[in-house]
Amino acid sequence: MNDQVKNWLKKINETWDRWTNAQWAKGLRITSGVIWNLALILLIVLLVGGAFAGSVAAGYFASLVDQEPLREEADMRASIFSYEETSEVYFANNVYLGKIRTDLQRRETKLEEVSPYVLDAVYATEDEYFPVHDGIVPKAIFRGLLQDVTNSDSQTGGSTLTQQLIKNQILTNEVSYERKAKEILLAMRLEKFMEKDEILEAYLNIIPYGRNASGANIAGIETAAEGIFNVKAKDLNLPQAAFIAGIPQAPFAHTPFTSGGLLKDDDGLKPGIDRMLTVLYRMKETGYITEQEYNGAIAYDIKKDFRSPELLPQERYPFLTYELERQAKQIIAELLAEKDGIDPSRLKDEEKLNEKYTIMADRAMRNNGYRIHSTIDKEMYDAHQKVKDEFKNYGPSIKVEKYNAESQKNEWVEEPVQVGSVLMENSTGRILSFIGGRSYEIEASNHATQRYRQNGSTMKPLLIYAPAIEYGVIGAGSPVVDVAFKDYVDGSGNPYSPGNFNKEQELGIIPARQALATSQNLAALRLYNQIVEKRPAEFLKKLGFSRLIDEDYVNLSASIGGIRNGVTIEENTNAYATLANGGQFIDSYMIEKIEDADGNIIFKHQSKAVPVYSPQTSYIVTDMLRDVLSEGTGRRAQSELKFNSDFAAKTGTTNNAHDVWFMGYNPSITLGVWLGYDTPTNLNISNGTYQQPGTRVNMLWARLMNSSYDVNPELVDPAAGFKQPKGVVSRSFCAISGMSPSEECSRAGLVRSDLFNANTYVPRKADDSFVSSSYVMIDGKRYRALSSTPSEFVVSGGVGVNKDFINRMFGNINGDASKLFPQNSSFADRVVSEDTFDADGASPGSVSASISGRTLTWSNSASKDVVGYRVFKSTGGNALLTSVKEASGNSYQLSSPGTYFVVAVDITGNQSPASNMVNVEAPEPEPKPGTEPKPKPDPKPKPDPKPKPPPVEPPPVEPPPGDGEGA
């Protein structure tokens, strides 16, 4: 066996020798040697060149990232997680309202809250090797580089999820090798600091996904799931996940919605759906889904899942959304200032500081993902808007000239009657609902919280009656004087002559309760004049009236709503809630709490009660205001309520009916309503078509209250009414003076009783106002009779008041004392006017008489001091037939034929010249039967007889007991 092997090897050697010794073999050997040497040289060149090229590339890469600082882990994490997140607003009870206005909407989510289908789709489409690479995939980078160098039409991309995260959060979208180099470097560094799940979660929260069903730009998987399919990210099915995962490649081409929030047509949807099919195919090819799942997904009708187009929150609830933004911005500005060590109260006084932190707050609110929770009850708010929209009695629109910034010229525009309201909970200050205006498109300003108007007579309980009770000046039924001012000059030296709503009305002495219920201006102003030196406007400051100026503390007109800068509906409502709250002011608010993106509460409202009025005063005023609904200016509202509750209310109308108000409250809630034109205009221009302005606001208040009751009857109609606190007592007093009843007051039947604050004032001093009195009537007014006044014109036995009483009631504002007890006064039949008439001393002017049948009538004398008229019969001498009091009318029924005349008599007893003569002819005798009456010859004309002077006047009336100096 060995010999055979040896022979075989020997033959092989002999054959090799023959070949190598052949001529051709020698040439081949030389050639191969050359090739080998050349190959070795080429290999050496390539190795050296590659090393050189690598060094150059490394150097170039190093030069590209030379300016990039070495970022620490904390810095990189802060940058990665600093993505903007949209703040959201909520109704009360965590009812979602919507997102704050922003250029990009995003809501953060956690990885465990994302559907697994989404993760698989992202892996298959964006980064197949994400679970195993260290931030980059070299072959993908080289592929992208080669495509870039060769200017290839096919751009497959080479960025991992980590690189995309770096590009979006730390770098920019700039297309350059420098940016790409930094991206690669930072991606590898980031992988050393963060876990894969952290990177993936951050990526899913920052990536843009086109638009939502409102047309807003969106980013983040949670925002995309809700905005496109109206589901949570964790609930996305396979086709939905594939559709969303395909959007980032071309967000605005693949999104299903237009910028106006409309669903695209089939052609517009095709790119997004085609991309979804591509994502599904890659998921199948990479093994994330089965063939069966793939077939089911590509057959799925994704179009049916797209969310219906919807309005943005600011489109659905414009007044509410913008108001919550405004208030939240103010709160956040104060928080930021406080964080910087600045007293937040300085923002109210320092304009530049406020501007700085307001800008910072606006940015934070739009980027930091706050959750802003309001106090607004959605159902109640919706109900109020419905009542507002359906109300038909606002009044007509007017044409006003306004400047148009676009056309840069004045234009005539239509302006409707505007409306504002606030409903708040008394015990907490929570604003449950409001009406900001007729339409945000007509007027964007919020009439409930931002418009300042004079509040008319709704000021009276706050600035007059409550302070007067608190100061111990009056009780609920104390007498006040409703008589016009006489020769009054204000603090500026200007004449001031206010009047009641009915300019001719003067009710005289009336109870404070009545004056408030029927809203008498004169009584209110005179009462305010008694207390103005105590600066009762300090109460308004405590009530939160924010724009008071110095003159509001001293001007009488402030007491009937004439403060210079006005109040908001919110401020006025808050003030009335203070009365409902037993005198404790609890500031109204609309933001319950604010949470940051992680759910931490950064702000929570804390209600604080500030004493303004005592509980006793508050209850007494409330009891007085109950009368407004039962017998005062709020009767129409009471009649329209569908439920019975313990309500108190006050109406208000400003000068020329520019504004009308209705403020009503019960122990639980307060509702304030206002109507008026933005350009102050008389609301009465409707000529009655829409009813009186006061009636309109009565009706609207009642309907809003009824709609509130329909939503929450337990809140709106509490079981218990207002409870009378200790210290509120009922005491008797003399109705015309307010003092403790005297015997004279009792005999006159003038004793009344009503509520008093025992801690400040109850009647103790006995009344000393009365004197016996006789009076006459002149021009419908009562005046004390003089000693020379003819007795037949005097009403004797009346009860009068003394001069001290008149001086006390008028104070330093004079008035016509005869108006203290006018004919329409409830005291008119028992109390005599206590003013003496200043007679002119001359005889009265004569009158003109006429006859109709047997009714004698005559004209009024031109003299102003006439107390009555005497009728004389001149036939057979001047005989006095009768005396007629001035107030009884100018006529007398004659009983027999004759010649008659009339004279006027003044208060001093002076008598006028006689009037013209009038005749009453005797009737013709009846003719005897069968005889013809003989014709009478024409009578000869006779000259008018001149009347003889009247007889001597009757003796004057005896003066009443006393000194004759009665007022």
Structure description:
The chain is an alpha+beta fold and 967 residues long. The chain has 29 helices and 31 strands. Strands 2-1-6-14-15 form a 5-stranded mixed β-sheet, with helices on one face. The chain has a 5-stranded antiparallel β-sheet with strand order 10-9-19-18-17, with helices on both faces. A 4-stranded antiparallel β-sheet has the order 28-27-30-31, with no helix packed on it.
Keywords for this structure?
31 strands, five-stranded antiparallel sheet, 967 residues
**Estimated radius of gyration:** 49 Å
What is the CA-CA span between the terminal residues?
168 Å
Q: Beta-strand percentage?
A: 15-25%
Uncertain runs with pLDDT below 50, 5 residues or more?
56-61, 939-967
Largest sheet: 5 strands, mixed
Based on Cα principal axes, name the global outline.
elongated
Number of helices: 29
Specify the helix fraction band.
25-40%
Please give the order of strands in the largest beta sheet. Answer: 2-1-6-14-15
Number of strands: 31
Mean pLDDT: 86
Label the structural class: alpha+beta
In short:
The protein is α+β, with helices and mostly antiparallel strands.
Q: How are the elements arranged and paired?
A:
Blueprint: H1 2-21, H2 23-64, H3 73-80, E1 88-90, E2 96-99, E3 105-106, H4 116-126, H5 138-149, H6 161-169, H7 177-193, H8 196-206, E4 208-211, E5 217-219, H9 221-229, H10 238-246, H11 251-254, H12 266-285, H13 291-298, H14 313-316, H15 318-339, H16 346-349, H17 351-367, E6 371-374, H18 378-390, E7 398-404, E8 409-415, E9 417-425, E10 431-435, H19 460-470, E11 479-482, E12 508-511, H20 512-517, H21 521-531, H22 537-542, H23 569-580, E13 584-586, E14 591-595, E15 601-604, E16 609-611, H24 615-631, H25 635-640, E17 648-653, E18 659-665, E19 669-677, H26 693-711, H27 713-716, E20 728-734, H28 743-747, E21 751-757, E22 770-778, E23 781-784, E24 795-801, H29 803-810, E25 849-852, E26 855-858, E27 866-873, E28 879-885, E29 891-893, E30 898-906, E31 918-920
Parallel strand pairs: 1-6, 3-5
Antiparallel strand pairs: 1-2, 4-5, 6-14, 7-8, 9-10, 9-19, 11-12, 13-16, 14-15, 17-18, 18-19, 20-21, 22-23, 22-24, 25-26, 26-29, 27-28, 27-30, 30-31
Helix pairs in contact: 4-10, 4-12, 6-7, 6-8, 10-12, 12-13, 15-17, 18-26, 19-21, 19-24
